[in-house]
């Protein structure tokens, strides 16, 4: 199947009800509309300097997200990986170790939060080709996976913040990152 170039999609923002709903499993991975949605999600996440995006963030209530870690202005320290579609994911096992780090969200522009997440997650999902994959993700990529998985469950990163003192503006976050990169 030849992959078409995707088009940019509009991102739902905090307050839209789709962001708070649990999403439905994908029934037909090979469906043209699903494959088109995958292309569009990849195009969108790359254009807006995201490291992940979920279907509900573009008004599609299905269990699909794109994992697309790459260094960019929003996440200069992100490891580089090819964008992959994660369909009907399950988290099978988590590490005991929890790490707090900064997260943002395309659906909540201008805000960052210091969020606790499992350092590693063992997961299972289907690829866009319909292949079942079992894999362990660690560190930053595990964080992205958990963040996007939360979207499929109707949760946002602000639901996981432990204190309002752990929230900062994007502008202050950029200053913080800039000072870290200079060291």
From TrEMBL:
Swiss-Prot/TrEMBL GO biological process terms: translation
HAMAP family according to UniProt: Pep_deformylase
Family: Belongs to the polypeptide deformylase family.
Residues annotated to bind Fe cation: 105, 147, 151
Entry EC number(s): 3.5.1.88
Highest taxon, organism lineage: Bacteria
A Pfam short name: Pep_deformylase
Top-level EC class: hydrolase
Function as written in the Swiss-Prot or TrEMBL entry: Removes the formyl group from the N-terminal Met of newly synthesized proteins. Requires at least a dipeptide for an efficient rate of reaction. N-terminal L-methionine is a prerequisite for activity but the enzyme has broad specificity at other positions.
Name the UniProt record assigns to this protein: Peptide deformylase
Organism, as annotated: Candidatus Roizmanbacteria bacterium GW2011_GWA2_37_7
Cofactors named for this entry: Fe(2+)
Annotated cofactor note: Binds 1 Fe(2+) ion.
Catalysed reaction, written as an equation: N-terminal N-formyl-L-methionyl-[peptide] + H2O = N-terminal L-methionyl-[peptide] + formate
UniProt KW keywords: Hydrolase, Iron, Metal-binding, Protein biosynthesis
Gene3D superfamilies per the UniProt record, alphabetical: Peptide deformylase (3.90.45.10)
């Amino acid at each position: 199947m030849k992959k078409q170039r995707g088009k940019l999609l509009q991102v739902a923002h905090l307050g839209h009800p789709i962001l708070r709903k649990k999403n439905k499993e994908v029934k037909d991975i090979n469906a043209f509309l699903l494959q088109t949605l995958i292309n569009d999600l990849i195009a969108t996440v790359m254009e807006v300097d995201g490291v992940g995006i979920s279907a509900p963030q573009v008004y599609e209530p299905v269990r699909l997200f794109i994992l697309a870690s790459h260094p960019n202005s929003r996440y200069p320290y992100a490891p580089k990986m090819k964008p992959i579609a994660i369909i009907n994911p399950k988290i099978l096992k988590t590490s005991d170790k929890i790490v707090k780090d900064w997260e943002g969200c395309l659906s909540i522009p201008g805000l960052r939060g210091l969020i606790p997440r499992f350092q590693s997650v063992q997961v299972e999902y289907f690829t866009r080709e319909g292949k079942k994959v079992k894999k362990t993700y660690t560190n930053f990529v595990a964080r992205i996976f958990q963040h996007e998985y939360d979207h499929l469950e109707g949760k946002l990163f602000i639901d996981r913040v432990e204190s309002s003192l752990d929230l900062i503006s994007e502008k202050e976050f950029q200053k913080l990152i800039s000072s870290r990169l200079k060291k």
